[in-house]
Design brief:
About 55% of the residues lie in helices and about 0% in strands. The relative contact order is 0.09. The chain is globular and about 45 Å long. By secondary structure, the protein is an all-alpha fold.
């Protein structure tokens, strides 16, 4: 599927430069060590509400480095289903927790990877996600949470994976996302907030899937994202150097997005 393909491909691209020096065995061992919850551990208690997303990233990490058998998605299907919030129709981070778009997105991704999406109620999950969309097109994380571009991305991606992404939802979301784009080409958390690489990444991932009334310049905010990423990781680089790297990488990313 296009969303997962883009995420996986971009991750592979980022690993190409470091794979030769990456100790995959140690990395996989680290992930495997965290497979079973340590419920008496203080760190686990403090992060328990994010457990389901941790499961997804563990599975995803093993797939990216070519070791999918270490944490097979099929092994966690029952765990995912236990996190379903029957009252809300979405998934919480742990059994008994309230549904949230972040953990619903993680749950759906795991079920898709395990070919087990038919084991949950697609209608209920889609209704939960659509119910989070606001009049301005943005999405809340849950019934009480704030709205921002991250949740909008998660909602659209979840609906796409469920096969329930319709044009009306896309147009409203696109209207909101356009308001979040700044003069530098990047995107903020919400309208009139500074550009951030994480928010730009979310919008790059949804750019091909939503129907903007007026086309967003994908190449412009892709360039902005690359410059922000390069600047964050190499603060000593000059503008000329950043432009050089961005010009080299943009064609690659555009081929993935268009």
């Amino acid at each position: 599927f296009s969303f997962l393909t883009i995420v996986i491909t971009l991750t592979h691209c980022s690993l190409v430069w470091t794979m030769a020096s990456l100790d995959i065995e140690s990395l996989v061992a680290f992930v495997k060590k965290h497979e079973s919850p340590r419920e008496n551990d203080l760190y686990f208690i403090m992060t328990e509400h994010m457990y389901l997303t941790g499961v997804y990233y563990g599975i995803f990490c093993c797939h990216v480095v070519g070791q999918p058998g270490v944490l097979p998605a099929e092994k966690f299907v029952d765990t995912v289903l236990e996190c379903f919030d029957h009252q809300a129709g979405g998934f919480g981070g742990r059994p008994g927790y309230s549904a949230h778009i972040l953990y619903t997105y993680s749950a759906v991704q795991i079920l898709v990877m395990a070919n087990s999406l038919d084991r949950t109620s697609i209608d209920n999950v889609a209704a939960f996600v659509c119910g989070l969309q606001q009049e301005d097109g943005s999405f809340r994380g849950d019934i009480d949470d704030e709205c921002d571009t991250r949740f909008t991305y998660c909602a659209l991606a979840t609906l796409a994976l469920l096969g329930r992404l319709d044009e009306a939802v896309c147009r409203r979301a696109g209207s909101f996302l356009k308001k979040c784009q700044n003069v530098d080409g990047g995107f903020g958390l919400e309208p009139v907030t500074e550009s951030h690489a994480g928010m730009i990444c979310c919008q790059v991932l949804v750019a091909e899937a939503i129907y903007f009334d007026c086309a967003v310049d994908v190449q412009m905010h892709t360039r902005s994202m690359l410059k922000l990423l390069i600047q964050e990781h190499s603060v000593a680089l000059t503008n000329d150097v950043m432009n050089h790297h961005a010009n080299q990488l943009i064609p690659l990313m555009m081929n993935l997005l268009l």
